[in-house]
Specification:
Blueprint: E1 7-10, E2 13-16, E3 22-23, E4 34-42, E5 51-63, E6 73-79, E7 82-86, E8 89-93, E9 98-101, E10 107-110, E11 117-124, H1 126-131
Antiparallel strand pairs: 1-2, 3-4, 4-5, 5-11, 6-9, 6-11, 7-8, 7-10
């Protein structure tokens, strides 16, 4: 049976019933995370065998980790404006923009604005990828 996590919006904050917010530890490393939280909206807990949907918020002045993974990502910008680093390029993004991040591409999301920068990120289930030899 499917699962619905209802959005509970209050004072500009987005939360979903039954979904925990996890704050990333902040660091002074210029490549590290600052002011970032994630909510796993769909994943193993919901019984999704092949993919996960995560909701990220980046506070004003914050950024995600400068990272690379063996799996690809699909990203949909929901709120605010930000900068995405894709390999050697920096691009401005805003609500409605869709980003594809291929496997092993260096990437980072940066919020230099005065409002929350938020996006959905869809990834494959890593356990499934391991079972078919991709990871």
């Amino acid at each position: 049976m499917g699962i619905i996590h209802k959005l509970e919006e209050s004072d500009g904050k987005w939360n979903w019933q039954g979904v925990a917010k996890k704050d990333y530890p902040s660091t002074s490393d210029p490549r590290g995370a600052r002011g970032v939280s994630v909510r796993w909206l769909i994943g193993r807990e919901e019984g999704a065998p092949y993919f996960a949907i995560r909701y990220f918020e980046v506070e004003p002045g914050g950024q995600t980790v400068l990272d690379r993974h063996r799996h690809d990502h699909g990203v949909f910008i929901l709120r605010g404006k930000g900068t995405v680093i894709l390999g050697e390029e920096r691009k401005e993004v805003s609500p409605g923009d869709v980003i594809y991040i291929p496997p092993d591409e260096v990437h980072q999301f940066i919020n230099q604005q005065e409002e929350i920068f938020a996006f959905l990120c869809v990834i494959a289930n890593k356990e499934h990828l391991k079972s078919i030899g991709v990871l």
